[in-house]
Amino acid sequence: MNSSGILSVVTFVYGFAAFLYVASWIFKKPEPGRLATWVVFAGLMGNITGIAMRWMESYTLGYGHAPLSNLYESLIFFAGTLAAVYLVIEKKYHNRIIGAFAMPFPFLAMAYASLSPNISDRIQPLLPALKSNWLIAHVVACFIGYAAFAIAFGLSIMYLIKDKDAEGKSQLLERFPKTGVLDELSHQMVMFGFLFLTVGIITGAVWANSAWGRYWGWDPKETWSLITWFIYATLLHARLTRGWHGRRIAYLSVAGFAAVMFTYFGVNLLPGLHSYGAMGR
C-alpha cells in the first residue's frame, strides 16, 4: 500500500474516533471514549507513517522534498497536527468530551483531502521559489497555529453552549468542563496558536525575500494572514488589558477561526503567489 492508500484509511480512523467521542458523550458511557483515545493515537501513527512514506516516495521519483507543498499535503499535515494537539489536551485535562468537538476537524480535513475530486494526491516537483528550507519552517509553524486555533474554536463552541444552559438543565452538558475551565483553556490555545502564527508570518516573510526579493507583497494570503493575526491579537489584548472573558472572547475566537478558514481555503480562489493552483496543485 502506498502513502495515499494509508492516508485514505486514516480518514476513516479519525471519523471512527469522532463517532466514539460523540457516542461517549451522548450515551454517557466512558468505554467508547477510552477506546476513542486509542483510535486517535492509531490514526495519528498512520498519519505520520503516510507523511513519512510520501516524503520517501518523492525521493524515489527524483523530486526529494518535504510533503508540504500543495493542498493535499497541507491538509494531511493539518489533520495530524490537530490530532496530536488534541491528545496532549486530553492527557492534561482528562476530559474526553472535548474530543467530540475537536476530532471532527481532522476527519473533515482528511476526508476533503482524500475524497474530493478537485484535489490531486500526485507527488509533483517543486517550483523554484518553493525550493527552500524556509518552506518547512513556515508551513509547520502556520499549521501548528491553525491546529491550536481549531481546538480553541471547538472549546469556544462548548463554552457558548454551556453558558447558554447556565441553570444546568441539560443532562447532556453536565459532563462538560466548567465554563471557567473552557474559557481559560481556549485562551491558552489562542496564545499557543498566536505564537506559532507569528513565527509562521515572520518565516514566510524571510522566505519571500529569498524567493522574490521582497519581504511583503500584499498577496491575498499574506493580507488575510495579517487580518487573522490582528483578530487574535485583538482577542489577547482585550483579555489582558480590558479583562474580557466569557462570551465576548468566545465570539472573537469563532471570528478568528472563520478568518483562518478563509486564509486557508478562500484565498485559493483569488489570484496570487500563495494560491495552491499557482503552486502546482
Give a structural overview.
There is one protein chain. By secondary structure, this protein is an all-alpha fold. It folds into 2 domains: 1-122, Four Helix Bundle (Hemerythrin (Met), subunit A) (Up-down Bundle), CATH 1.20.120; 127-275, no CATH class. Helices cover 72% and strands 0% of the residues. The chain has 9 helices and no strands. Helix 1 (3-27) packs antiparallel against helix 2 (30-60), helix 6 packs antiparallel against helix 7 and helix 6 runs antiparallel to helix 9 (247-264). The longest helix has 34 residues, at 179-212. It starts with a helix and ends in a 17-residue tail after the last helix. The relative contact order is 0.11.
Structural class: mainly alpha
Instruction: Give the low-confidence spans.
Output: 277-281
* Termini Cα gap: 23 Å
Helix share of residues? over 70%
Q: So how many helices?
A: 9
The radius of gyration over CA amounts to 19 Å
- Envelope shape: flat
Oligomer designation: single chain
The count of DSSP E runs of length 2 or more, i.e. the number of strands, is 0
Please describe the biggest sheet, giving its number of strands, its sense, and whether it closes into a barrel. Answer: none
Mean pLDDT: 89
Order of helices and strands: HHHHHHHHH
Fraction of residues in β-strands: under 5%
User: How many structural domains are formed by the residues?
Assistant: 2
